[in-house]
Amino acid sequence: MKYDVVLIGGGLSSLVCGISLQRTGKRCLMVSGGQNALHFSSGAFGLLGFRPDGSAVERPLEELDKLPANHPYRKVGAAKMHEYVNRVKPFFASCGVMLDGDPERNSWRLTPTGTVRPSWLAMSDVTLYEDSVVSIGRKALIANIAGYLDFNTAFLAEGLEKAGVTCRLEAVALPEFERLRTSASEMRSVNIARVMDHDQVWKKFVEQVCVLLRDEDVVVLPEVFGLQDEHVLEQIRECIPARVVFVGTMAPSVPGIRCQSALKTAFEQAGGEFLMGDEVISSEMDGERVLSVRTANLGDTVLEADHFVLATGGFFGRGLQATAEAVSEPVFGLDVDAPEERTQWYNPDFFAPQPYTRFGVHTSENLRAMKAGKEMENVYVIGSELGGADALCEGSGAGIAVMTGFKAAEMING
Amino acid sequence: MTNKNEFDVIIVGGGITGAGTARDCAMRGLKVLLIERHDIATGATGRNHGLLHSGARYAVTDRESATECIEENKILRKIARHCVDDTSGFFITLPEDDLAYQAKFVESCLAAGIQADIIDPKEAIRLEPSVNPTLIGAVRVPDGSVDPFRLCAANMLDAKLHGAKVLVYTEVESFIMEGDTVLGVRTVDQRTGEKAEYRAAVTVNAAGIWGHHIASLAGVNIGMFPAKGALLIFAHRVNSIVINRCRKPANADILVPGDTVCVIGTTSTRVPYEECDHMHVTPEEVDLLLTEGAKLAPVLENTRILRAYAGVRPLVSADNDPSGRNISRGIVCLDHEVRDGVKGFVSITGGKLMTYRLMAEQAADAVCKKLHVNQVCKTAVTPLPGSATGSVEEVSRKLWSVPVTVQKAAAGRSGDWAEKIAMDHPMDRSLVCECEEVSVGEAEMAIRDLDVHNLTDLRRRTRVGMGTCQAELCACRAAGLLAKAHGCADRARADLKDFMNERWKGMYPVAWGETLREGEFTQWIYKAVLGL
Amino acid sequence: MNDHKFEQCIKCTICTAYCPVVAVNPLYPGPKQAGPDGERFRIKNKFFFDENLKYCMNCKRCEVACPSGVNIADIIHSARMRYGHQKPNLRDMILASTDLMGVMARPVAPVVNAVAGSKAGKWAMDTFLGVDQHRTFPKYQFKGFVGWFKREMEASQASYPRQIAFFHGCSTEYQHPEVGKAFVQVMNALGFGVQLLDEECCGVAMISNAMWKQAKQHARHNVAAFEKAVDAGLPVVTTASTCTFTMRDEYPHILGVDNAKVRSSIVLVEKFIHDLVDKGKVKLVFRKDYKARMAYHIPCHMEKLGWSIFTKNLLQMIPGADLTVLGSGCCGIAGTYGFKKENYAYSQAIGQPVFDEIARVNPEFVVSECDTCKWQIEMSTGYAVKNPILILSEALDLEATAKANCVNG
Question: Using the beta-carbon criterion (under 8 Å), do B500 and A146 form an inter-chain contact?
């Protein structure tokens, strides 16, 4: 089979790149080895939240020239970064995902442990605040679903109390959840959200919350609403006579799944072909050009393309693989930026920056992959597969995915 | 003795020896105080193979230890059924080993009273498919596995049920002494900084390798030999029968299936005494354990490693052996009045997990002698709490008509003490730890009955966070339960950070493959999503 | 044990979000608990096996979603085989023995159909067997596919330049011979002679119903038959997605029957034709007057095979086809699962989103490679469901296609 572009990986960066390409007339095929990291999204995207010293960034675009030379944003280039950031909201809106936030200035969001964290753009679940000294409110009612363990109300309350908000914790029990609760393991965010997706259920839940509400001006709820339709969130906000703040839960992430599903649909509606649960197992190359790949499922059906985009992620996405001896890139055997000595891969302090998060495929200035020291002609690397950034400490994971996704699409379109 | 700070005996150290001694003394009717500076089972007790030795390992080199082991082996199978897994064990001879050693080995086992049957290598492969198929000899012995955390907790619980007082997170700063007599201890609460004094006619030093320091506080010198042993935990049981090498004890020659995992070990290196509190497993140790381990069971090469850890054996110096391999694992019970002229002070050390009960018996005998109490030891015939009923099947079926997995898992861990675990409401059965099937009810039981102050304590009692994901899923849930139980989210949050760091400490020495993936994923959840 | 890669699970919980059973049945422990989590306990002691693993429909959606490559459903069904105490009852054996039932029912097909379709018959099956009375039974055909083929087609097959072996499966023989007929017509038009195999039921229903011994016997028999065909240079072409998936993957992964020599030669007709067209080895000529609005329901096992791309591409080649691809979702039948009284309500609840979407799209008919999906969707929505090969046979100008492929029919 012949395509214009084969994208390997099906997460945020690949979807952004694939949708952009498909919409500009390129025939795209996406191969994804299962679902992706969007399933653990907080619902908020970061562009650049923190400096290396841990201080918070207010205007990410003004920090670009301070980033190391091999940082993905440096490869995208300052001019393109300025252009792309303003393209993000309309792009996602066209896929059915409404994002809040100022593209050029960071806002703040409330974390599940009651702290605040810089955020760039966010799905409608997330409430964004303009200042780090958050005026969340005076009094908060934190309402959980009875028996749900993945929404840590105690931490949340403690964090809010420190910020001067008086908190009251309540758990709402609805008969609709009794059945789910009989399972020892499946009282999870998505399963709850599936039940909540029925209009009569979320309405009943909201009614109960309203009954519990006294003089609180804020109501904090877990992100378990609107799995299918984000408009429910707005309706809930309208029904409760207080400011409603949704806060993330343990995985899987309801806004993340909603976003993934919307982007995948957008890609397919634009005519893209998505192979879920398949993986590239071999490739044919001619010099610095990849001619074709084969996948586990398609067997002897060869996938040819003019361009290949590698977006298989870091270690989690299996875009990088580590053995006791070395770190490697498994699809094309590309050059990887990682030290040989494995004692250099980690920091003994779990909460300190971890060197391995910076590892990635070595690319040229224009995101083309390097193999055996030579630049590949038609292989682009995007997202967390790229090295040079500690996305976790920087708060830049989604930003890198989206910016490099746009960039690769533009490079391919020429 | 009406003063609440006065006791018959104070036991310093909350490892298995201390817990066993506390139980024994309490069962003999003494008023007991046990003091531990951290949590129970934090030293060598919780940092070994969890091997229920048959004694075969020592049969050739250390007859006395071998005999003690097999006797205690038989006792533990009766009194600690819920902590013991009757796996049996193999001593295999590989082509590179001397098969002639086998005959000597079997002869020595039989002489020590250890059953040892030579079996055909093919039969060994049939019984234990993971064993190295190139083996040229195999001997079957009554090895098994024992859960040291559970064993320690059960001893501690029984001591308390017999009236003992247990103070954890309490450190002995000095002894109250009058001339050459130890009258008691001065302590500081590690969490609050609060100081206190406790008095007793006899103080027992059961502090393992740290007993060296405790003894020095009383002006006594015990020449301890700190021998570090490193081990690796694999993510599931690759073997169901313990596999040992049939040769003189050496590095990484025992693979023990314990609970849901298996453990390869150990190494043996002398370490400076000052480093005993800060053990790290080196890359060289990891590589050695993997290379040697794969010789026992080649599948280990491709098995996910959960973590690496190291303990320090409390050996008592005998010679200049640089590794400590040749020092006797025999029990050392010192009456310091006889040895050093210090009255009211006994040290119990040396020995090993297997012989903890006998060590406790000897210590308690020494205490009773000093107190002129004439009570016999009953610990060899009295089952520990949880061990009154038999197997996990029997316990589960006795407690619940149709047990579900979470109930079976609870029965597997707590024995018949599982009846104290709330299971009626669906909420009680909800899983906190999914890898190890630990329910809300079980965690709450541990918090209530078993001196749990933080997540790491909870882990030692229930296996929360000990499974495949190394706490990625459960830590936050468990922290929520602790915050509720202790009414303090601030403390629970700090505790959560400590716990994640404690988990990572075991992961980073083996941070490649799935272990590194798990590490990266856990970072996302705790840093990006939870914002810790 | 490590074959199913259960240790690659990093407990991300993604599988639980895509399990159709978890969404409706709290008795099922969920793919994560039933699969990789439970496996560690079962290895320790088989007592930890949980009979509720039987609620897994084996739809494989967990495996498709898993970012770690864990064969979750394989772990679950291997555990059922290794540790389970489930013994199939009479009902299960009847449901699972699709070929035997076909043989017995065929001579009296009108009577069987009438009884199975009657209120009294449904009541009796519900009461005495535990087959849910709401369930509509597929009709047995008086005349099967094989009889027709031997009578009317077999003699001419040798004249075609290229040859293939056809695994027709139970439903083509007993319920839907038209699928087999369409297959032969299309293959002939493309210049392929069709040879039948000495086939037995693929055994998928036996796997679901814990009839392990019988399933293994069938697997061994079929693999031997395929090896003979492959040795003779014939690919094994099929029309049913679940049979195909079972014979390629479940034989080695669950039943432990080695099919390495033949696995890659077992292909669904849609992939077979697609690859020929793609390589320019055959040409398709479509009728100018064919027009149809169709909605493609991708069966679970097609998702797992990853081959829906071939069906989509083929259908999109039909100039008159207006194709909507339905969202990814399980119809809830899962072979014999949905026939059972205890599962009926779960089965329908699982399928509801699919039924709703079909009603919204309102096509002329639904497309599906799976016959049990067909039964479920036809019963639950009233829309007809067609196998893609049937659509192809209707949309192709068979004569012109034969000519284009230089076939002298």
Answer: no
Residues in chain A: 414
Number of domains forming the structure of chain C: 2
Chains that touch A (3 or more CB pairs under 8 A): B, C
Shared domain check, B129 and B238: yes
Least reliable range by pLDDT among A70-74, A126-130, A279-283:
A126-130
Extract the residue ranges of chain B whose pLDDT is less than 50.
1, 319
Q: What is the CATH classification number for the domain harbouring B179?
A: 3.50.50.60
Expressed as residue numbers, the domain containing C357 is 292-395
Specify whether the CB–CB gap between C144 and C104 falls below 8 A: no
CA angle C401, C405, C409 (to 5 degrees): 75
Mapped onto helix, strand or coil, the DSSP state of residue B259 is coil
Smallest Cβ–Cβ distance between B426 and the set A153, A182, A321 belongs to A182
| Token pair in block for residue B516 | 């590194």
Please tell me if residue C36 touches chain B, with a CB cutoff of 8 Å. yes
Same domain, B200 and B244: no
- Does one domain contain both B300 and B339? no
Kindly list the residues from chain A whose CB atom is less than 8 angstroms away from the CB atom of residue B436.
none
In this structure, which amino acid lies at residue B90? F
Residue B427 tokens, joined: 């909420």
Write out the residue range of the structural domain in which residue B216 sits: 6-44+149-223+329-371
Please answer yes or no on whether C13 and A252 come within 8 Å at the CB atom.
yes
Contacts of B87 (CB under 8 A, 6+ apart): B143, B144, B145, B240, B241, B242, B257
A251 and B430 in contact by Cβ < 8 A? Answer: no
A237 CA to chain C: closest CA distance, Å? 26
* pLDDT above 70 as % of chain B: 98
pLDDT reported for residue C1: 42
CATH class of A2-100+257-413: alpha beta
- pLDDT above 90 (res A134): no
Cross-chain Cβ contact A154/B528 below 8 Å: no
> CB neighbours (10 Å) of residue C400?
15
Domain boundary, last residue among B272, B288, B313: B313
**Is B397 domain-assigned?**
no
CATH number of A126-247: 3.40.50
Asked if C306's CB is within 8 angstroms of A278's CB, the reply is yes
Residue of A nearest to C304 (CA): A277
- Please name the residue of chain B whose CA is at the shortest distance from the CA of residue A108: B531
Do the Cβ atoms of B139 and B54 come closer than 8 Å?
Answer: no
Answer yes or no: do C26 and A183 touch at CB < 8 A. Answer: yes
Q: What is the DSSP string of A338-368?
A: --SSGGGS--SSTTSPPGGGG-EE-B-TTSE
* Separation in Å, CA of C8 to nearest CA in chain B: 6
Note the helical H segments in B372-527: 392-399, 405-414, 426-429, 440-449, 455-462, 474-486, 489-507, 513-523
Together in a domain, B428 and B506: yes
pLDDT at B322: 60
- Residue finishing a domain among C63, C83, C103: C83
Q: Residues 206-225, chain A: which have Cβ within 8 Å of B?
A: none
Q: Which residues of chain C are within 8 Å of residue A191 when distances are taken between CB atoms?
A: 16-17, 22-23
CB C164 within 8 A of CB C193: yes
End of a domain among B245, B279, B313? Answer: B313
pLDDT digits (tens, 9 = 90+) for B80-107: 999 999 999 999 999 999 999 999 999 9
Put simply, whether C68 touches B (Cβ < 8 Å) is yes
- Residue C43 C-alpha, separation from nearest chain A C-alpha, in angstroms: 20
pTM for the model stands at 0.96
- Pairwise CB contact (< 8 Å): C67 & A273: no
**Element housing C15 (H / E):** helix C14-18
Please indicate, yes or no, whether residues B153 and B125 belong to a single structural domain of this protein.
no
> How many domains are contained in chain B?
3
Confidence class for position C384, pLDDT limits 50, 70, 90: very high
B128 and B230 inside one domain: yes
Domain membership flag for residue C50: yes
**What are the tens digits of pLDDT across the range A313-357?**
999 999 999 999 999 999 999 999 999 999 999 999 999 999 999
Which residue of chain A has the CA closest to B493? A155
